[in-house]
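FW: tagging you since you asked about this chain on Friday. Here's the raw sequence from the shared folder, copied in full. Didn't touch anything.
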Amino acid sequence: MPDRVLRLVHPRTGRVLAERLLVPRTLLGRGVGLMFRRQLQAGTGMWIVPCSGIHTFFMRFAIDAVFVDRRLRIVRVRVGLPPWRLVPLVLGGHSVIELPAGTLAGLRLERGEALMIEPA
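HL: got it, structure written out here
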């Protein structure tokens, strides 16, 4: 059975942040995440659930990361996070959405603001 295709939307602006949102289903998939990939295509993101802290070890590119609570409300945003960095546990964070660096450029995401994940 194929995975369901999801997309990430910023409701306040209507901007689609990811046309294709990947969701690793196993512990191993969540642990490996984006490591060892050459890039993350524009329009693509990865939603890691559950996850309240990340690292970019063994990654070859920078990412934008949005930590959200169980209701998809923004808890913390990291823009342009380069390889070989660590973001320790984010209090209140339940999952993280990783996007290509630059995806959030010009977009003011505020703590407590909700994002929307919907079928593509």
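FW: Residues 6-119 form a domain with the Jelly Rolls fold (CATH 2.60.120.1140).
HL: agreed, and Residues 52 and 73 are 13 Å apart (CA to CA).
FW: great, closing this out.
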